[in-house]
Amino acid sequence: SQSIFFCLGIQKHIACVIGGYIVSQIAKKFVEDFHGERDTRMRDYIIRHPELFPEPERVKYSQVLEEWFPVR
């Protein structure tokens, strides 16, 4: 019957799910480490070369937003 065919490969499915989870966790850690290293290098470069990265001018919303006119 149908229930016999459904259960035949369930072990393979469970093994693939567990294997996929483990591979995804390893890939996630690799990507996070890569991005962390990149961010650390960029932050260090910015700290060592402040002349290339001047402080941005502080701007209020009132200076950025334009006057709004409703369209009817």
In total, the number of strands is 0
Helix content: 55-70%
Strand content: under 5%
N-to-C SSE series? Answer: HHH
Q: What's the total helix number?
A: 3
Overall pLDDT metric: 89
> Structural class of the secondary elements?
mainly alpha
Taking Cα atoms only, what radius of gyration do you get, to the nearest Å? 27 Å
Largest sheet features: none
Low-confidence stretches: none
Give the CA-CA distance, first to last residue: 68 Å
Gross morphology: elongated
Write the topology of this structure.
Blueprint: H1 2-8, H2 10-48, H3 61-64
How is this structure best described in words?
By secondary structure, this protein is mostly helical. It has a domain at 1-50. Helix content is 69%, strand content 0%. The chain contains 3 helices and no strands. The longest helix has 39 residues, at 10-48. The radius of gyration is 27 Å and the shape is elongated. It starts with a helix and ends in an 8-residue tail after the last helix. It is found in: Mitochondrion inner membrane. This is NADH dehydrogenase [ubiquinone] 1 subunit C2. Belongs to the complex I NDUFC2 subunit family. It comes from Temnothorax curvispinosus. Its main location: mitochondrion.
